[in-house]
UniProtKB/TrEMBL annotation:
Coiled coil: none
Matching InterPro entries: DNA_Partitioning_ATPase, MipZ, P-loop_NTPase
CDD domains, A to Z: ParAB_family
Name under which the protein is recorded: AAA family ATPase
Length: 269
């Protein structure tokens, strides 16, 4: 069966779509067929990134790996229960179709709470929660005491993940591997950076997730969106030079994929 990787949190601007694109490119270059679903049905940043990639391939004739896409829509039924049942069926059917040909399925969730997002979290074998390295984004995971900096309790999002874990357990599925990805980590040993790090380590023991370093704050990630490229494509396309900063960013991608410990993934880039 395909290994399902879900990119989820309930805050925008954390790097979910960028992470999804680079993870798809990495898995493809490791020899895997990848299926993708974008559940952000309003902005569709992940699929817009892929559309830009298709346009680049058509314009330049460059051969680049592409995923198998499944497009979902919200139900338009008036009954809440009927709409929910229809969306559950659509989601399950999409997973089944991708499972026939793909060894990995990537699902990019919206920065909001939806029924589709709930289902994706319950289906996840690996859950990746990208977060910017700030106390504002830490609030996504838990509430902090403003005086002591101690964790007071889990957030609404953490409680949603907990419920998803319970659903998996009741269905006899293996536990989800929850990974928090710290993006935009400052190179300075700032007080905020230390506080976030300490709070994450404390919380990880309480609610059960792993913490790994993500991507730095680099202009290159924003530059590549319009062409639909990733750092793993630059050597093949020659569109953007591989300077020292870009090589360092490429190494960050390697480190993230390695730290995720996904099954049957041997780095080939």
């Amino acid at each position: 069966m395909a290994h399902i990787v879900v990119l989820g949190n309930e805050k925008g601007g954390s790097g979910k779509s960028t992470t999804s694109m680079h993870l798809f490119a990495a898995l493809s270059r490791c020899g895997h067929q990848v299926g993708v679903i974008d559940l952000d049905l309003r902005q569709k940043s992940f699929f817009r990134y892929l559309e830009n990639r298709e346009a680049f391939v058509k314009r330049t004739g460059t051969k680049l790996p592409m995923p198998v896409r499944e497009v979902l829509d919200y139900s338009t039924l008036d009954s809440v229960s009927a709409a929910q049942a229809e969306e559950e069926t659509r989601f399950a059917d999409a997973l089944n179709r991708l499972d026939e040909t793909c060894s990995f399925i990537l699902i990019d969730c919206p920065g909001s709470h939806t029924r589709y997002a709930q289902m994706a979290h319950a289906a996840a074998d690996t859950l990746i929660t990208p977060m910017n390295d700030s106390l504002i984004d830490f609030d996504l995971l838990a509430r902090l005491d403003p005086e002591t900096g101690k964790v007071k309790g889990p957030s609404v999002y953490s409680e949603m993940v907990w419920k998803a874990r319970q659903l998996r357990a009741s269905a006899g599925l293996k536990p989800v591997d929850w990974v928090v990805l710290r993006n935009r980590i400052s190179t300075l040993n700032a007080r905020n950076k230390r506080r976030v790090g300490s709070a994450l380590q404390e919380l990880s023991k309480r609610i059960g997730f792993r913490v790994i370093p993500g991507f730095g704050e680099r202009v290159i990630f924003r530059e590549m969106f319009l062409s639909g490229l990733t750092l793993l494509d630059l050597k093949d396309t020659g569109e953007i030079s591989l300077n020292i900063s870009n090589l360092a960013a490429r190494q960050e991608v390697r480190d993230v994929v390695k730290a995720l410990q996904l099954p049957d993934v041997k780095l080939k880039f």
